[in-house]
Queue: 2 jobs
Job 1
Amino acid sequence: MTRIALIVACLLVPAAAGAQQAPPPHDSLRGAVRTVDPRARTVAVTTGVGMALRVVQLRVPTELRVSAGGAALPLTALQPGDIVRVSFGWRPAGLVAYTIERVGRMTDGAGRSP
């Protein structure tokens, strides 16, 4: 009886340890900031998917710090038109951002000639 209990324990311990170490499933995108709501802590990003555009609404946890060139930025520093790279995941309440990195800014190009 003791051997069976020991074998069962040996089989269950690695499975439980592996389940705890697995990173949360995530996805990533690159796109342009459409809106930023610092009070609701949300960001909407427009990104291309195939031949279509998609707007992704993300919740931003309070502990998440936006970065740009390795420096931390407040959420209020993001403006519509900023190009961002976002890592996010699914939660019961919706999509949650894990990282937000500002990689550039769109220019409108008005007044330029080709």
Job 2
Amino acid sequence: MSPEEMLKSTAEELRESLQPDNVIGKPVDLGEMLVIPVTRFGFGFGAGGGGGTEGGKGSGGGAGIEPVALIILYKDVKGPTGIQVMSLRKESTLVQVINALSDKVAPQIIEAIKQIEKKETGKPE
């Protein structure tokens, strides 16, 4: 496999891995609440080739994923008060932003979860 083919293959794998569904996880239904995991992705890769009599080619890469928070939606509590963000790290900017915007984005989050559940179960709301 040529270095170009290796890079194309690696880029394609990264494109497939770095989807929003992999950062904001699928909701987990725990009865009276839904829990949505939030993660952080990091990656890097490179390739190179050399000339000379022997020549050389190579490529490499690495990736990591880290859980950073859980969004908890309480089914029996309406509005922003039914949303809790639990940081899995010490104080994080992500948690501060989500908490600051929670009353503005809560309806969109709840609607998105309903749409996901509708698609997965095939049932109307």
